[in-house]
Amino acid sequence: MPTRLTGATAPTLLRRAVAWGLAILLSFACAEVALRIFQRIHPTFLLSESSYNRFRGRPGDVVFGMPLNSGGFKDVEHPRDKPAGTYRIVALGDSFAFGSVPYEDNYLTLLGQRLSTETRIVEVINMGVSGAGPQDYLALLLDEGLAYRPDLVLVSFFVGNDFTDTKRVNQSSRPRSAVATLVRSVHGLLFRNAGLLPATDHYDDTAKSWTDDTYLAMERDRTRIYEPGGTGRRIYLDAIEFLARIQSVCADHDIGLAVVIIPDELQVRPDLRRRVMGAPGDTTKGLDFGLPNRFLEEQLTTRRIDHCDLLDRFAGASEREVLYKPNDSHWNLAGNRLAADVLAGFLAPGLQGAPK
């Protein structure tokens, strides 16, 4: 009896499985077509396969009282044709360049003001995209930055995650399916924003961005890049490769290049290191917090790429004032002002006789 029952139900189960499979495939195909049409009509970063577009701002979205420009950047509109008598800088970077402060307080905005004089206008075009990495800076320069005919490309390299962002993208293949891209994007948002505190429309220099536990875990995860002899050397080289490609592009178009090395808060604040490492005495535990900066210094010098390392200036100034937002690796208002001052002093001598 059991044998006859099994034999009788097997074709039925097979037909049901085939029917369910076809239904799933049809549903997937319909969803794929619908999402692709939606992306064409109303583009969203959730469906973008381009790395730097995945977290790009939406044109017109208001951030701290100012709408993003037509490119989705936190900047004013800039004409493609460079105005006469103007020295133009295209600034590339991640969320540091995009800025966690209002536009008028961003270090790149302040940099343009500090470099401009009565006889020289310096225009800084902020093309920062949150979540971007060195490979994205190269793509953004090729796709959009060169069209502005800059005199200088300024790359903001954040030690905290530009090494690891490069490694992550190199080791992963982005799905071409719109459905898969959407699932991946939503999954990333859910995990990335865990512990993110509610934000307001008005900037608050003292408001925490993440919960204590989340921020300490984020900084603890970043300590791997400070391990001597660890995996850091390989991901260092990945990042340098993209900076070298940017240098080659700039050279081909007779454009200057400068890199500003942005330290992580963990590098400049011993008190944060104590909290992250969980030890009141030895806060290093074999880690070398200056290692990535020395490597960049060596590589950029060898390749003759102008660079400005902010580590020492921020470490010294951090003994006197707070330069980072609470539970946030980004600069507060004071940090942005200091960065603008240091960068202006670094770039000003090279602007003699500008514009071209």
Provide key terms for this protein.
356 residues, alpha/beta, Rossmann fold, 5-stranded parallel sheet, two-stranded antiparallel ribbon, 14 helices, 7 strands, disordered N terminus
Q: How would you describe this structure to a colleague?
A:
- The protein is of the alpha/beta class and 356 residues long.
- The protein has one domain (43-351): SGNH hydrolase (Rossmann fold).
- The protein contains 14 helices and seven strands.
- The protein has helices spanning 2-41, 51-54, 95-98, 107-115, 134-143, 162-171, 178-192, 212-221, 232-252, 265-268, 270-277, 291-302, 311-317, 333-347, and strands spanning 62-63, 66-67, 86-92, 121-126, 152-158, 256-262, 306-309.
- The strands form two sheets. A five-stranded parallel beta sheet has the order 4-3-5-6-7, with helices on both faces. Strands 1-2 form a two-stranded antiparallel ribbon.
- It is globular and about 85 Å long.
- The N and C termini lie far apart (93 Å).
- The relative contact order is 0.12.
- Mean pLDDT is 84; it is low at 1-5 and 167-174.
Q: Could you tell me the number of beta strands?
A: 7
- What value does the average pLDDT take? 84
Helix-strand topology string: HHEEEHHEHEHHHHEHHHEHH
Structural Rg: 24 Å
Beta fraction of the residues? 5-15%
CATH superfamily: SGNH hydrolase
Separation of termini? 93 Å
Number of domains: 1
Looking at the structure, what is the overall shape? globular
User: Mind telling me which CATH architecture this is?
Assistant: 3-Layer(aba) Sandwich
